């Protein structure tokens, strides 16, 4: 390892500084919420009504997605399996710690404290997912120090964007298609635009997969697939809204999966199935139902959205990803623009259509609970009538369906703009010379940052003459 990429001082120093800051901030600002504070428990409280029992299953499911799903999925490169899984582990752990503070300030801050409970952890996991999606755009081309810096900067930018959109635009986005998938996608594209490496446009000798790495990656896909209904439904209203979210997510994932198999065989010259399609395209339906996942869109619409998302994702990988790399200087390593960007745009459009078509005939009085900003404002006689039917219904803004749809459109553009600008700025910071960025020839190689086992041999599958011919362009001139 050269001095420019050595982690001996960079990583321990950076982590130590982060930990000192974390200890100080947690000590000053973080306390327990009402459901985790022993002082508030007495003989009138029922331990089984604690929010822990309602929220923990979702927390556990999303934990599996974050650490096993993303971790295994990112281990598809033959010589980058350690880095894909372990850097995901490192980045996710820090991102959740940091998001508890940043997200907590905007959502759970009162009396000078952030009140910590399991629901905070779920919100922090969503913020962490944003970082890990963005990580996919720069996989194989960054150091762990750069990834920690990306998480350090992306979490606050995401939290501010989310707060501003929810506070001032007041949108519906139960599955996070706008605020999670679109934000993460365009933030990651902004970063990779700044970190553009022209010599990698034609590929790299170690940018390959293997039988075992592809199997491991598919395991990650299966973890994400199985637990995606929890991801989409975790923050929806309990009851029928959450029930619909689970149903729609499963239908969307199911239709996108079988469509992915069909398209993969159809567009393969030899009529065979491509593993990259199974690893990524099968998940598209989970994103495309996200913005409307808790709405009365009908099961057939969820099924159709899965097919549409799959098709967009598949053709994006086939045609759009090479175009972005060659013409727009965007080397999207994992194709996040296809799986999260294109599908996020489809999902946002579907959500807008669902809002425009929502009526009391379809939803009954609960329409004003699902679309809370369409509820009558304080003082409106209709609000009192609705509160008799739905106790606890809060006053809304009295928006029409058309007005709410326009705010949804505004949120899409605002989120993309904030994410892209934040990604460009973060990329500039990550490009600083002391960030231990790997050279072009050392990308996609575990040996740069890890003590690899004795049976790790990056050269074993290449004839020496072929290797020399491929590697020469990457050697220092």
From TrEMBL:
GO annotation terms (biological process): ammonium homeostasis
Protein function: Functions as an ammonia transporter. May play a role in the elimination of ammonia in the gill.
Protein name: Ammonium transporter AmtB-like domain-containing protein
Source species, domain of life: Eukaryota
Subcellular location: Cell membrane
Coiled coil: none
Entry keywords, A to Z: Ammonia transport, Cell membrane, Glycoprotein, Membrane, Transmembrane, Transmembrane helix, Transport
């Amino acid at each position: 390892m050269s001095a420019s990429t050595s982690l001996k001082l960079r990583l321990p120093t950076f982590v130590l500084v982060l930990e000192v800051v974390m200890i100080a901030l947690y000590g000053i600002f973080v306390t327990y919420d009402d459901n985790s504070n022993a002082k508030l428990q007495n003989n009138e409280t029922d331990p089984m009504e604690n929010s822990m029992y309602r929220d923990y299953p979702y927390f556990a499911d999303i934990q599996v997605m974050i650490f096993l799903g993303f971790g295994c999925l990112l281990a598809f490169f033959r010589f980058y399996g350690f880095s894909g899984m372990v850097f995901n582990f490192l980045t996710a752990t820090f991102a959740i710690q940091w998001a508890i503070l940043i997200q907590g300030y905007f959502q759970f801050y009162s009396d000078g404290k952030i009140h910590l409970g399991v629901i905070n952890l779920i919100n922090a996991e969503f913020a962490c997912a944003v970082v890990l999606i963005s990580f996919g755009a720069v996989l194989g081309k960054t150091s762990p120090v750069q990834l920690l810096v990306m998480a350090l900067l992306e979490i606050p930018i995401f939290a501010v964007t989310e707060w501003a959109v929810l506070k001032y635009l007041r949108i519906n986005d139960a599955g996070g298609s706008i605020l999670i998938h679109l934000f993460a996608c365009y933030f990651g594209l902004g970063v990779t635009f700044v970190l553009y490496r022209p010599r990698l446009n034609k590929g790299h000798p170690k940018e390959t997969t293997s039988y075992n790495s592809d199997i491991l990656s598919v395991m990650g896909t299966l973890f994400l697939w199985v637990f995606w209904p929890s991801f989409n439904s975790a923050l929806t209203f309990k009851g029928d809204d959450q029930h619909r979210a689970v149903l729609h997510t499963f239908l969307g994932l199911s239709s996108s999966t079988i469509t992915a198999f069909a398209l993969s065989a159809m567009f393969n010259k030899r009529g065979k199935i491509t593993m990259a399609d199974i690893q990524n395209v099968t998940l598209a339906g989970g994103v495309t139902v996200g913005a409307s996942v808790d709405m009365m869109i009908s099961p057939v619409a969820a099924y159709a959205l899965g097919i549409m998302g799959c098709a967009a994702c598949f053709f994006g990988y086939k045609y759009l990803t090479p175009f972005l790399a060659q013409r727009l200087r965007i080397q999207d390593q994992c194709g996040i623009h296809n799986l999260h960007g294109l599908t996020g745009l489809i999902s946002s459009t579907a959500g807008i259509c669902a809002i425009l078509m929502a009526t009391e005939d379809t939803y009954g009085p609960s329409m004003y609970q699902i679309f809370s900003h369409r509820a009558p404002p304080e003082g409106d006689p209709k609000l009192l009538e609705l509160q008799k039917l739905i106790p606890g219904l809060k006053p809304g803004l009295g928006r029409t369906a058309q007005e709410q749809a326009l705010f949804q459109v505004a949120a899409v553009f605002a989120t993309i703009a904030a994410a892209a600008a934040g990604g460009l700025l973060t990329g500039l910071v990550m490009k600083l010379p002391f960030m231990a960025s790997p050279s072009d020839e050392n990308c996609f190689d575990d040996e740069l940052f890890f003590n690899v086992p004795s049976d790790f041999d990056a050269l074993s599958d290449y004839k020496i003459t072929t290797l020399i011919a491929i590697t020469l362009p990457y050697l220092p001139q």
